[in-house]
Amino acid sequence: MMGQFAHDFDRRGFLRAAAAGTVAIGAATFAGALPAAAQTPGPGAEKHGAGLSIPKDAIGIQLYSVRDKVYQLGFRVVFEELSRMGYKEVEFAGYTQDPSILGRQITLQEIRTLLDDNGLRAIGSHIGIGSFRSNLQKELDNAQILGMPNIGTPNAPSDTATVSGYQAAAEDFNRWGAAASARGLKLYQHNHWAEFAFATDQPAVRLYDVFLENTDPANVFLEMDVFWAFVGQYRYPGFDPAAYVREHPYRYTLFHMKDGTSDPDVGDGYDMTEFGAGNMPYQRFIHAIGPFGNHHGIWEQDTAPDTQPDPPGSFGAAQRSYTALADLLS
User: Fold this and answer.
1) pTM of the model
2) Got the DSSP string for 256-291?
């Protein structure tokens, strides 16, 4: 259905694996949680984007959101459409398209040329963690060809939901991050909800905290998927996503700005939807993270190809979500 592009990175497969490895819920409370009074923006904040640390003039898109169009139509058509919509940055989820478009597979240099021709910047790329283990320097080469400053993984740091498992993973990320830094790149990890669970061997310790505390802030960065962070908060209460960013602003180089509608009848507590159609507390979040750092806002919607409003499909969702996100940051 999605061809080679889907084979590069099967996000739903990852989520199934994460669900199968769900760990026990503990009772601890994240010590740095933002006080309730501090979570409310000041007067007029709802109407003005001044002072935000997410720039409104560099809104990006995770290409997984339009994966069907990438494969079927190719990068040229997709980049032309995204540029027309107003997007300025793209995050990759694979570097392939339908080979029949060119009679062969597109090259990285050709993709770079198409980015430049359409005024787009590659801001990052999601790479399976296995490639960092076996092919790190090649992945860093690819990132430099595409001109991206960041390269990351959507995988959980470890499949072992213990303190020692996450400590060992932190050592790996420190090593990979040092190699990326030596090439002028930033290595990042993208969260789903499972990272916010508690360790199976120490149920008072949150796995995300273990990773954050044991990775070198000079070499290992984070991409907060805001949707999954709020799902993590729903599943494993006791922390506020904005507090992590406020306390470590320069480690969060990227955000996935993904929206959801609250639904107590589903396990995640939210149904994913296009940006602006949900009720996640984004207005509060973008002000509560504070004014420091430079956080690139990237729209993503895993379900965009199945979107039904008029016009239907992932391009329709991309256009409406861009408009809503730009309005939020204005």
Assistant:
1) 0.86
2) EE-EEEE-TTSTTSEEEE-TTSS---HHHHHHHT-S
Beta carbons of 301 and 258 less than 8 angstroms apart: yes
Taking a C-beta distance cutoff of 8 angstroms, is the pair 61, 233 a contact? Answer: no
CATH topology of domain 3-40+53-329: TIM Barrel (3.20.20)
| Signed CA dihedral, 245, 328, 256, 177: sign only | negative
Q: How is residue 112 written in tokens?
A: 């770079």
Q: 129-146 vs 163-182: helix axis angle to the nearest 10?
A: 20
First to last CA, the chain: 38
Q: Domain segments of the chain: what residues?
A: 3-40+53-329
Q: Could you give the angle at which helices 108-117 and 129-146 cross, rounded to 10 degrees?
A: 50
Q: What single letter denotes the amino acid at residue 314? A: S
- Burial of 93 (C-beta count, 10 Å sphere; 0-12/13-18/19+): buried
What stretches of the chain show up as alpha helix (H) in DSSP?
Answer: 3-8, 11-20, 67-73, 75-85, 108-117, 129-146, 163-182, 207-214, 226-235, 241-247, 282-288, 313-329
Q: Give residues with Cβ within 8 angstroms of 97, minimum separation 6.
A: 4, 5, 70, 71, 73, 74, 75, 105, 106
Q: Kindly give the pairing relationship between strand 89-92 and strand 252-257.
A: unpaired
The tens digit of pLDDT for each residue in 38-89 reads 333 444 444 445 689 999 999 999 999 999 999 999 999 999 999 999 999 9
